[in-house]
Amino acid sequence: MIRAFLIAAVALMTMGADRPSSVDYRLDVAPEAGGPPVLSVEMRLRGDADGETRIVLPKRVISEPTVSGAAMTAPDTEHRLLQHKPGARLTVRYRLRVPGAGPNVLAITGNAVFAVPDGRADQAATLRWNRLPRGWRSLSDLDPGLTAWAPRLADLDEAVLLAGPDLRIAERGVPGGVLRAAVFGDAAGAARLADLTAPLLGAQRAFTGDGSGSFLVAAGFEAASGGRGSLTLPADLLTRSDPSDEIAQALTRSWIPQRLGGPAPDAAGLMLGVAAFYADRIRLRDGLLPYSAAVSTLAMADTRRDARSRGLILALKWDEDVRRKSAGKLDLDDVVLRMAEHYRRFPAGQGPDVITGLISAAWVTAEIDLRPDLARYVQGSAAIPLLETMFGGCLDARVTVAPGFDAGFDAAGSFATRTVRGVRRGGPAWNSGLRNGMKLENWTFNAGDMNREIELNIRPANKRAKPRKVRYWPYGDMDVETRKLQMAVGLSDAANAACTRNIAGL
User: Fold this and answer.
1) Is 364 exposed, middle or buried (0-12, 13-18, 19+ CB in 10 A)?
2) Most buried of 6, 91, 200, 413 (most Cβ within 10 A)?
3) What does the pLDDT look like over 301-354, one tens digit per residue?
């Protein structure tokens, strides 16, 4: 009886061990003469309980996948349907070529590498490097023991995989873990990237309160992007004198979709602006950015009309709206952190999009309805109003009224043909004696500049005569309002320090 019980217990334990709760990947890297390396990928998983598992393939597979434990059909080029016994153990194998890499460089993100079973975003995933060419080393944010969280299939798209004989890695301590900075070929470059990124990552983790474990930052990619535990940066980043701003922006841009909400394509520009607002605010909080530099960024954005710049100014408006609605007790930070707390409750891929989360969090936090602002300033193009004084008197939005710029003639067409045309009767050019058909010798003209006169040298009909100069101020008949964001003037050192804390949300 006891023996039978022990046999049954062992059988149950064995059954549990044979039922892995993760999808496990194994990678082999093989160099190819004169070309980029080839990756051989092995994926081990349990099939779905209904006997059919749908696999989504990466795009650069160079050989037809094979499978053991199932029959495979191809409903289209991107998917494979596996038919098997319920819950069967399956192994899928395929090969792919690394895009855009040299013969000794593997620098790739997971969306180009990993096939995944459909509908399992929250399932755990593991990675192991099997075989590398002699002298190569590898690094990934999926490597076992490098994160304080268990990677999931949802994290694979943005995961970073690096390998090569010249891979250089520098480590720095950051709050909650270790930062690993990786570049190819230059140990000094890896150290510089680590030194630039470590304080920025530390500041972001201090603000968000949800960053722990190791983090990988790698230069050598086409563009900046980020995942749950990694950030990729352009290959030429370290050739710039001070890439801190780009790194800070990339960190914040990657944090938003990971922590605040799913993509909202119609509001992509808005969220880029919100990311820019927080890239500066987070650095201000840790003393990594001067108050004057943050104000300059706001002032420049206020003169532009692209979606990102308007998003930054909207974030500024909403921050002040929340402050005033709460009598200074809250600001936009409270809205954003509530978004993060709410989004954390959902399984991967099932939370609300970022705009839905923003609207909800603003209402719950401060009873502010952002929908009218989104309609006017994101879907529409109305001018974004700002109060004349913000942050307790630290930031001024000065509005001046002046005549609008009016050249009074078709400047572009006239300069192209060196013949005056398009002179408007009664305008500033007409009143100064300019007429259609006059020949232009040379000119001084700055479109939109109200602080300089327009000077035109008119070629005389008599070639022996000197050119005649026509000069005038380009003042139009209509007045134009211009807003300029600037630091409040005449503040003491103590007041400036207090303003830094105010704009930083402290």
Assistant:
1) middle
2) 200
3) 888 889 999 999 999 999 999 988 998 888 999 999 998 888 888 877 778 888
422 exposed, middle or buried (CB, 10 Å; 0-12, 13-18, 19+)? middle
**Contact assessment for residue 488 and residue 396, using Cβ atoms and an 8 Å cutoff:** yes
Helix (H, G, I), strand (E, B), or coil: what is residue 209? coil
pTM of the model: 0.76
CA 160 to CA 314: how far, in whole Å? 33
pLDDT of residue 18: 40
Q: Which residues of 374-393 are buried (b: 16+ CB within 10 A; e: fewer)?
A: beebbeeeeebebeeebbee
Give the up-direction half-sphere exposure of residue 140: CA atoms within 13 A in the CB hemisphere: 26
pLDDT band with cut points at 50, 70 and 90 for residue 1: very low
pLDDT, tens only, 129-152: 999 999 999 999 888 876 667 888
Name the amino acid, one letter, at 270: L
Cα separation, 57 vs 68, in Å, equals: 17
Mean confidence (pLDDT) of the chain: 85
H-helix or E-strand spanning residue 148 = none
Backbone dihedral angles phi then psi of residue 149, each to the nearest 5 degrees: -125, 155
Over 15-78, what HEC string results? Answer: HHHCCCCEEEEEEEEEEECCEEEEEEEEEEEECCCCCEEEEECCCCECCCCEEECCEEEEEECC
